[in-house]
Structures are given as C-alpha cells and as structure tokens.
Amino acid sequence: MKIAIPTNEKGSLEDKVALHFGRAKNFLIYDTEIKDFDIHPNPEVTGGMELPPDFLYRQKAEVIIVFSLGPMAYNKFKNYNIKMYKAIPGSILENIKKLEEGNLGELKEEDIF
Predict the structure, then answer these.
(1) Is the entire prediction scored with pTM above 0.90?
(2) Residue 110, pLDDT score
(3) H or E stretch including 100?
C-alpha cells in the first residue's frame, strides 16, 4: 500500500506532517510493502499546473494522511477511491504506525473546510 503524507521538510520519516495539505512543500509517499519512501515536490507549490490530488493519484497513492482538506481535494480523493485519514500531531512515522495499527480515524465532515 502507498501512503501519501504532506510535509514541509524533506527526507525523513521523523519529519512532521504539514498542517496545510495544499501548501505543503513536499509529499512523502511510503510503500508499506518495501518499507521505503520517496519525496516528491508539491507540483502546485513549485508552479506546476497539476493539482496535488491528481499528482498523488498518478503516483498510485492509496491512502493519504492529513489534518484537513479543502472540498475540491476531498472530492477528488473520494472520486479516485483514495482513503483519507486524520493525522495526529507527531512524526510521519508515528502516523504510519497508527494507521497500520488501525488507530487513525478517517477524515470527517468537520475536517473539510
């Protein structure tokens, strides 16, 4: 499974989850099968024309972990059948572990702004 997580840092599972999905500098995509990750610049922040949900879909993300989403991103992820989970304060690794343990809740209506 591929898990996408927004971050403003670059390079470590100890990095924090970015507070704002659409303005995050990077996306860390963690592959649970090989226990490794890649870092990708957010195409919207770097001046590209591709929206983050479309980019993450192309990267074959199956899950995203975020604090909140805007309605357009939420609907795109829903249409792509990408599951959305609510991040907890802490590192990316802590969030991945919580997800794998079944201890992260799905994004709720109040998380869409």
Answers:
(1) yes
(2) 85
(3) helix 92-101
Q: How many angstroms separate the CA atoms of 19 and 87, rounded?
A: 9
Q: Is 15 left (phi over 0), alpha (psi -120 to 50) or beta?
A: beta
Place of tokens 């079944």: 102
Tokens of 80: 């792509």
DSSP 89: S
CA proximity to 84, closest of 47, 55, 59, 109: 109
pLDDT tens string 25-55: 999 999 999 999 999 999 998 888 899 999 9
Average pLDDT over residues 100-104: 97
Q: In what order do the strands lie in the sheet with 63-66?
A: 36-41, 26-31, 2-7, 63-66, 83-86
Long-range contacts of 9-14 (CB under 8 A, 24+ apart): 10/39, 11/39, 12/92, 13/37, 13/91, 13/92, 13/93, 13/96, 14/91, 14/92, 14/93
Return the residue matching tokens 């990408």. 82
Quick one: tokens of 35? 């226990």
